[in-house]
Structure formats: structure tokens, C-alpha cells
Specification:
The chain is an alpha+beta fold and 358 residues long. It is built from nine helices and eleven strands. The chain folds into two domains: 96 residues, no CATH class; 240 residues, Alpha-Beta Plaits, CATH 3.30.70. The strands form two sheets. Strands 2-3-1-5-4-9-10-11 form an eight-stranded mixed beta sheet, sandwiched between helices. A hairpin with a 5-residue loop joins strand 2 and strand 3. The longest helix is centred in the N-terminal third of the chain and has 39 residues.
């Protein structure tokens, strides 16, 4: 049972944030942080109040049931009510316990999705295209907006690399466990002998960062303009509109090669900010070694996380030992939610077990 003091502390924190926001005198950056915490705590505080209220009602019903001055019929009704409330309380406490689990503050954010072809040549680029379309369709079903920031097409289709922003509430929290190496086993269209090939693509999902999160100094970046290049046709620019930004302290290089140089600069800065923000998050995570132990996988993007076996129609997530024989639905995006929900449930249960042992 969650102690009353812990529940009351959550409610007090939420009330304090509400009061601060109502005063309206906070600096813009501080107000943004208060707004985020308010949004995160609101459902928790609501559930916490429901738990305390139900506990009080149970205590009142039990007192009435034990009071010898109460009529027998009323005592029987009070006992029945206390039993029904106890069942309600059990569900409320389970829900509150899950809400109180440690959260990644970036979970509520939009995300930057990066998909790159790995080993496997043309087939890897085709697979990278399949993966991107899988996320694109999943995002559409969730009501999220996908905007391509940068792309480099493969020679026979697909993508050597594609970077996109996915806008929506909770995008990062839902997609963050997609980061890693995705492996495909299938017969390529160019394979005349019918042999199964193994190819790979890497996926990175980064929380979208705001200027308030990461301050990029002008003297720390070098901006170069260049002519865009691609597989050919209308996607190749004839002017120097492509932008390459190099972050000198870290060596991170970001490019964007769409039609507008101004837009390319803004997009490249957005991706750079997300990568720097993720570096800072990884540094903080490594310092909290206990938190790392309960994360799914190592978090290393070189880790093979999932295999898509087309001959068997099988998808296997190696981190949690999940195997589904619904590969067509998963790769089409409609079945990806089942995989994601299994990963999130595994993470919640691991966090809950760690909390109970603490």
C-alpha cells in the first residue's frame, strides 16, 4: 500500500505548481518547465486524490459497520459498501503505482527519427525504406505528423539515410525503444537463385530538443553550403542550397539538402540540437547506473534489437524474447503497436519490481 504521506506529497507538489503558474510571474524558460511538470503531474494528482478519498470512505464505512449504536441493517449495508470500495481502491492503487514509477521527462516530446541503411548494399537501402514507411504508417494511425527533414535515396530504391520529425504528444516515449540495429532475412528481388540474404538498417529515435534545453553558441558551429546530390532527377538541386553544420566541440556533422537554404539551416540546427540533447541525456544516464540496469537492452545503437524473417513471417525482438508471426502486419505499420506495447509493458514491470525491492 502506498503511504498517505507519499500521496499527499504528490498532491502538494501539484498544488504548488498550479499556484506558481497562476501567479504568472515566472520567466519564460521557467514557465515552460512548470507547464511540462504540470501536464505530467495532473493525472497523477487526480488519481492520488481518488485514492485518498476512497480510503476515507472505507474508514467511514468500517466505523459505521462496527458501531454498536448503528442499526443492524445499516451495519450490514456499511460492510457491503466497505467491501465494494476496497475492490475499487485496489484498482486505483495499482493505477497510481504505475503513474508514480520513475519517468523519462522526454517521453512526452515529439521525436527525430533517423533510419540508415547498414550492411547489405541495395537490399539494406530497400529495408531502410520499408522501416521508414512502417513508422510513417504507425504515426498516421496515431494521429502524428511526419515531416521529412533530410533524405538520401538508394540506387534501386529505399534510402541510404532518411531523417524525419514526428510531431505529437508522447511520440518519444512510445518510439524510444526502436533505436538499434534492425535485421532482415529475405530473398531480395534481385536474387535469381532464391537465396535468403541478411541485411540490416539502424534506427535512432531522439527526443526533440528546444533552445531552452540546449544552447548552441555561434562560435561552436561551422556552416557550409554546397550543391545537393542524390540518385538523380528532380531531387538534385542546381544551386548551392544544401547546408552542412559541424559542431566543433563534439565533431557532430548534420546536413540538410532540400530546396530552401534557409529551411535547410533551420532543419539541420533542429537535428543537431536533438543529437546534443541526447548526448547529454546519455551522459546523465551513465551516471545513474542503477537506472541503466532496468532499461531494455544496453541503449547502444550498435545492438541488434529485432529480426524480421520474411520466409517464416516472423518478427523477433531479442531484448524481451518476443516472437510474433505477424510480420506482414508489423512491416505495414498496423501491427507495430503490439510490439511497442510489449516493450513498454516489460519496462513498466521492470521499474515496478525495482521500486518494490527498494
Amino acid at each position: 500500500m502506498i503511504p498517505d504521506q507519499k500521496i499527499e506529497a504528490v498532491i502538494a507538489r501539484f498544488d504548488m505548481i498550479s499556484a506558481r503558474m497562476a501567479e504568472g510571474d515566472a520567466e519564460p524558460s521557467a514557465f515552460i518547465k512548470l507547464s511540462r511538470e504540470f501536464a505530467e503531474l495532473e493525472p497523477v494528482a487526480e488519481k492520488a486524490r481518488a485514492v485518498l478519498s476512497t480510503r476515507r470512505q472505507i474508514a467511514e464505512a468500517e466505523a459505521l459497520a462496527e458501531d454498536p449504536a448503528t442499526e443492524r441493517d445499516l451495519r450490514a449495508l456499511a460492510r457491503e459498501e466497505a467491501g465494494e470500495l476496497a475492490e475499487t481502491l485496489e484498482g486505483l492503487e495499482e493505477e497510481l503505482q504505475l503513474l508514480l514509477l520513475p519517468k523519462d521527462e522526454a517521453d512526452a516530446r515529439s521525436a527525430i527519427l533517423e533510419v540508415r541503411a547498414g550492411t547489405g548494399g541495395d537490399e539494406a537501402a530497400l529495408f531502410a525504406g520499408d522501416l521508414f514507411r512502417m513508422y510513417q504508417r504507425h504515426a498516421a494511425a496515431r494521429g502524428w505528423k511526419v515531416e521529412i527533414l533530410s533524405q538520401s535515396e538508394g540506387e534501386v530504391g529505399g534510402f541510404k539515410e532518411i531523417i524525419a520529425r514526428i510531431d505529437g504528444g508522447g511520440v518519444f516515449g512510445e518510439l524510444k525503444f526502436e533505436s538499434g540495429v534492425h535485421r532482415v532475412q529475405r530473398v531480395p528481388e534481385t536474387e535469381s537463385g532464391g537465396r535468403i540474404h541478411t541485411s540490416a538498417a539502424t534506427v535512432a529515435v531522439l527526443p526533440e530538443a528546444q533552445e531552452v534545453d540546449i544552447d548552441i553558441r555561434a562560435e561552436d558551429i561551422r556552416i557550409d553550403t554546397m550543391r545537393a546530390s542524390g540518385a538523380g532527377g528532380q531531387h538534385v538541386n542546381t544551386t548551392d542550397s544544401a547546408v552542412r553544420i559541424t559542431h566543433l566541440p563534439t565533431g557532430i556533422v548534420v546536413t540538410s539538402s532540400e530546396k530552401s537554404q534557409h529551411q535547410n539551416r533551420a532543419r539541420a540546427m533542429e537535428v543537431l540540437r536533438a543529437r546534443l540533447y541526447e548526448m547529454e541525456r546519455e551522459r546523465a544516464d551513465s551516471e545513474r547506473s542503477s537506472a541503466r540496469k532496468i532499461q531494455i537492452g544496453s541503449g547502444d545503437r550498435s545492438e541488434r534489437i529485432r529480426t524480421y524473417n520474411f520466409p517464416q513471417g516472423r518478427v523477433t525482438d531479442h531484448r524481451i524474447g518476443l516472437t510474433l508471426y505477424t510480420l506482414p502486419q508489423v512491416i505495414e505499420g498496423s501491427g507495430l503497436g503490439e510490439v511497442i506495447e510489449a516493450l513498454l509493458t516489460h519496462q513498466r514491470m521492470a521499474l515496478l519490481a525495482a521500486e518494490q525491492q527498494a
